[in-house]
Amino acid sequence: MRFWQVIEPSLQYMVRGTRTRTADGDSARQSTAMVQTQAIQAVDELFLFLNYLALGLKQKDLADRYGVHQSTVSRIIHTWSNFLFCVLGSQRIWIPQNKISEHLPAEFKDYPDTTVILDCTELRCQTPSSPLLQSEVYSSYKSHCTLKGMIGMAPHGAVTFVSPLFAGSVSDKQILVESGLCKLLRPDMAIMVDRGFLVDDCVPCKVYRPAFLAGRPQMPANEVRETQSIARLRVHVERLIGG
Description:
By secondary structure, the chain is α/β, with parallel strands linked by helices. It folds into 2 domains: 2-89, no CATH class; 97-242, Nucleotidyltransferase, domain 5, CATH 3.30.420. The protein has helices spanning 2-7, 32-39, 42-55, 59-66, 70-89, 97-102, 131-137, 172-179, 221-242, and strands at 114-124, 138-139, 144-153, 159-162, 166-167, 190-192, 206-208. Strands 1, 2, 3, 4, 5, 6 and 7 form a 7-stranded mixed β-sheet that branches. Strand 2 (138-139) and strand 3 (144-153) form a beta hairpin. Helix 2 (32-39) crosses helix 5, helix 3 crosses helix 5 (70-89) and helix 4 (59-66) crosses helix 5 (70-89). It is globular.
């Protein structure tokens, strides 16, 4: 309900459903499904949409639960997806460096200039029929077609950056470059990344990353300690994505 109170003032800007048009080009008329959509209170539409996201319920199941047509459920999902994308996407979640420093956990005392901890995540998607599109979204890491995005988390646990989704074959470095994150970074900041993020040449700040063995018989003791330390701190963003 607290979330509802935050977004309720923006409902006046919601664009609902579509209108059907006759074959001879007459003026649009409201469809039966749209009338049904308006018969459900907006707060119940939101709850229906959250049920769909959180539980993965089928549209026919939701239609039975809410006593509406399946096409109405489909329209509600489409409407609220677009609405929340616009409303939540317009909110600035990036936290200024001074605020991050104020809430820096004691565990980051050796990395006090860390602004954001980055990691990528992949979401399975339907396999395209086009072989060209298949090659673009196929992820060798997941052995499936995926969409890939990057999540940024402040040291104290707040999500401060979410990138758009890219094809699963795109590298982590390319996502970082094209996501727009580099424009938010300054030389006095630092990012903490996984071993695969070879981004030192495209960010204007320091990069904390576990060391590579790189053909050496063994790592120096100081690099081993640093690698273990960074891994312990980075596990929080992995848990965030996994949750």
